[in-house]
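PROTOCOL LOG
Step 1. Enter all chains and additional molecules of the complex.
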Amino acid sequence: MIDRGLALSVGVVVLVVVITRRLRPPRTIEPRSLLDALIPPVLVGGLVGRLTYMALDDLDSFVHVRDVLIIRGGVEFWAALLVGIGVAARRASRDGCPPVLRLVDLAPVALWAMAAYDATCLLREGCFGPESPIGLRPTGLGQPVIPLGLLSAGLLVVAGVVVRRRWPHAPLTTLVAALTFVALVRAIASFWLPKFGSLLTRQHVESIVVAAAGMAATVVLVFTHGLSQPHDRPDGVDR
Amino acid sequence: MSFRRRAAVAAVSLVVAAGCTATTSGGTTFEPSGPPAELPSEPLATVDADQFSSILVGLRGRPVVVNVWASWCGPCRVEAPLLDEAAAEYGERVAFLGVASRDERGAAADFIEQYDLDYPNLFDADGEVREALGLRGFPTTYVFDAEGRGRATVIGGIGEQQLAAQLDDLLE
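Step 2. Run joint prediction.
Step 3. Record the structure below.
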């Protein structure tokens, strides 16, 4: 059996990456190598995220090894993202490119890919949010709701545009600010997403922690590094 | 095609194949009817389609979540803790009912024990219940409103957001 919704979402994300490769090619790698550059971080990050979720939720779930592949079961977002970033950084070092520069170069693609995934909530279980007279009505609900997935997708698209335009100024600050923005979007959206009970979910708490730490780090970096200092580009890296 | 790209395609294919059909449609065409009946007190009681229908009629007055599962189904294992958590959270406000179908009774009982499911589960020995519900895949979750009308059918694992949204909507 096929998880059609998830498969369609993945297909849309891959399509967005391919379009990005053509319209907004990366600067630190050959455009045709973009998928090759993204695949290892995504796969390793995704696997770690899935294993982390299973370990935090229920250790007994490891009895059935194949359940690791049931992505719909849940993926620990921040574990997946941070491990993916680590893998991408390591590969950049191996390529002789400053890791921060590579990460900032790939950040817009990652943000647009996340936006595509969020937007495809329409293809999966539905785009949920607080009730509203204007909005979308997911199947099974009697009232329309504000589609938070679509809103967050829009915000992530804008973030990707901003990050790309900042190249190559203050790459570390830009990168940390981008991560902070993702955390803020997730943290704020989580307040309105339906859940069991009134307590914050684990992933919601994680997003709040990352957002808080990210904001503090961004402020420190702005004061210590400024906002306009360009990074020295390695040989062969385009403007 | 580079090795990495082939590996990625293979990985995505595996993920896609390992999941189960996940689609949501409006309420099922199944309409509970007949005289109301109490839930059997024995665990994993065997029911036929008519008995199942009567049980649902007896549960009217509050929303009902019916989850059809099997012990061999991976996504069923993944969603079981979520449904148990939901049942605990919503308490008496929502009735949760599991139906083990196309399964061995012993394996189904082990599944219930392994996941410590506190909500009642029935045993669909002859497949009548899944046929009456029009089951198309495992697991499938049916949400009925307080009047017994089917509001949503989720084929494949149901997520917390989706279930919470539907139940909160019905309870308003």
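Step 4. Note key features.
Chain B touches chain A through 50 residues (CB under 8 Å).
The longest helix of chain B spans residues 74-90.
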